[in-house]
Design goal:
Length: 82
């Protein structure tokens, strides 16, 4: 089983900064989903920014959510600035 979401923060350009319960921090790009069904509602920045952790995953104020496995497997590792 993949790690679950502990915290999520919306960032610019429809990206999310996600902290997983194993301590990893990753970026998830929501852009590829923004033209698919109900996900298109997330183009409203205020709605996009409503994202919160929910039962090991994430959920927006309109009820849209994503599978925690998708979030973990399709996110990219946070690149630390040196």
């Amino acid at each position: 089983m993949n790690p679950r979401v502990r915290n999520v923060s919306p960032e610019k350009d429809f990206k999310l900064l996600i902290t997983f319960d194993n301590g990893e921090m990753k970026h998830f790009d929501v852009t590829p989903y923004l033209n698919i069904g109900i996900f298109s509602e997330l183009q409203d920045v205020s709605l996009f920014n409503s994202v919160k952790p929910f039962l090991g995953s994430i959920q927006w104020a309109n009820g849209v959510d994503l599978c925690p496995d998708t979030l973990y497997l399709e996110s990219t590792e946070l690149k630390l600035r040196s």
